[in-house]
């Protein structure tokens, strides 16, 4: 019965009085300037329970933290109400934590190449001229606008975003590319001394991936993402630099070269901590020319998180 009376007395004291003076409690934040502060003192006394104490209350404007301090003979109790900004800070922390474990915003750097209709490196005879020089063919992707839907805290979720992709395929100077109607083929370069022979395509892409993290600490997390990335062609170019009759020349061709406009890739990204490797393979043929053999893109490399 004594415990019940004690509890009731504490509840009544807290509800009647406001908050503790700043000077009495080291946990109290300093009051902001230009605020009105009211301090009250009450007494907590239970005769049979032999509990005596003072209740100090402090009331500041509604935007500031309020506290209640109950002083007993050999101890004190401090109750601190939270600021309205605490909820906002908590939401910001949750958002920061979520995107710390999202592996899309950043830059992909790697090599890219061409696969056969069977998704291997054995190109058909009429497509062998499309096999690039892998040591010089570069892939770069600028990934941004990431968004994530958490399914199981930050361990598992669905990630999307945007990406600007650039494929560069470099070739030897033995052949020139010829784009004609619904066909793509090559012819010998002849007497030209070709120093650059490059094909480029640029895309705007949107990924949709399932993402898994083994830890909520990004410095300890092993992570894997897999899905598809849809993309639309926004530019292409064939560029050649060569020497002929002692003169340096260059030729650039833009416009319709038979690239498939709408395309999609399969995508996988695996990493530990901030080190991430990626690979993606085309699901739609690179060219839609009727007389060009089906070939597919692939790229692989590493990801720099920003």
Quick gist of this model?
The chain is mainly beta and 306 residues long. The protein has helices at 2-16, 84-100, and strands at 38-46, 51-59, 67-71, 76-80, 106-115, 138-152, 156-170, 175-180, 183-188, 193-213, 222-244, 247-254, 262-272, 275-282, 296-305. It starts with a helix and ends with a strand.
Structural summary, described in words:
The protein has 306 residues and is mostly beta strands. It folds into two domains: 2-81, no CATH class; 89-305. It contains two helices and 15 strands. The strands form three sheets. An eight-stranded antiparallel barrel has the order 5-6-7-10-11-13-14-15. Strands 1-2-3-4 form a four-stranded antiparallel sheet, with helices on one face. Strands 8-9 form a two-stranded antiparallel ribbon. β2 and β3 form a beta hairpin. The radius of gyration is 34 Å and the shape is elongated.
